[in-house]
Design goal:
- There is one protein chain.
- The longest helix has 39 residues.
- Helix 3 crosses helix 11 and helix 9 runs antiparallel to helix 12.
- The chain has 275 residues and is mainly α.
């Protein structure tokens, strides 16, 4: 009896210790989140979200160019990475053995570990140098490359969780293989696919280093993908290292918006992953 009582007490102690460790690990995140919201929320208003930056010394101004630029870069990254990522992910889930699958998985894992600034340099050599100037397109290419391995890995893993009986039932009814993949397998793993895509968006939304070599930044509102474009991370970096206090305040406001956006994506991802 004493032995079982000792084991119960030991289990309770370990549970309490683990709970305390979890709470302690969240404290730095909560402090950072509180500090950013505290300094940035007072700057955010309608003008801040819907107007362009003004010269130093003039009151007002906003970050509309950075918001539009970030949206454009994310959309281009999605267009470049999602279709190819779905194709590769489906292939790796269906043909997990073989040389092509081995090398595809190896390249994806290596690419996921490459520093973002290196990817920015690669996009600079592939797109910026041949074009002769910075552009939103080169920034979208850099972010798409960063997002690709996350999409591939998440789609591969979620499709492996789908029972084989579902595919076998479809094939047994005479449905062609390609239609089974398109109409049965992919819809069955749609929530996981969306989770992987949103995780990739959350990963690239705050990247600054690759955009320094590609999108470069633009103080004006631009919708041309062949010209330089602003983005939230670039604006935050530029304003944070400037000597002007009004720019520091705007950097806090932009940081608050970006953090809340990434946090919202992560919450949505968690909700989707539970389905």
């Amino acid at each position: 009896m004493k032995r079982y009582l000792f084991r119960i007490i030991k289990s309770k102690i370990i549970s309490v210790i683990l709970t305390l460790i979890v709470i302690l690990s969240t404290i730095p995140f909560l402090l950072v989140l509180y500090f950013i919201i505290k300094n940035g929320i007072s700057v955010i208003n309608w003008e801040f979200l819907t107007s362009l930056p003004k010269p130093v010394g003039e009151p007002g101004g906003g970050i509309l160019n950075a918001i539009v630029g970030t949206a454009m870069l994310v959309i281009m990254a999605l267009i470049l990475s999602v279709p190819f990522g779905i194709l590769v992910g489906v292939y790796l889930a269906e043909r997990s053995e073989g040389r092509i699958a081995f090398f595809s998985r190896l390249v994806s894992e290596i690419l996921q570990g490459v520093p973002s600034i290196v990817i920015g340099i690669i996009a600079y050599l592939w797109v910026v140098k041949p074009m002769g100037h910075f552009s939103a397109l080169s920034g979208g290419v850099a972010l798409g490359i960063m997002m690709l391995p996350l999409v591939i890995k998440s789609i591969e893993e979620i499709l492996k969780l789908i029972p084989c009986e579902i595919k076998e039932a479809s094939l047994a009814l005479g449905v062609p293989y390609y239609r089974t993949i398109l109409k049965v397998i992919i819809p069955a793993g749609l929530s996981g696919i969306l989770t992987g895509i949103l995780t990739g968006v959350a990963r690239i939304a705050g990247e600054t280093a690759p955009l320094l070599f590609t999108a470069f930044g633009n103080p004006f509102l631009n919708f041309d993908i062949l010209k330089p474009i602003s983005a939230m991370p670039l604006l935050i970096f530029t304003y944070a290292v400037s000597p002007y206090e009004e720019w520091w305040a705007k950097a806090w406001g932009a940081s608050c918006i970006l953090v809340l956006f990434v946090l919202s994506l992560n919450i949505i991802t968690r909700l989707l992953s539970r389905r």
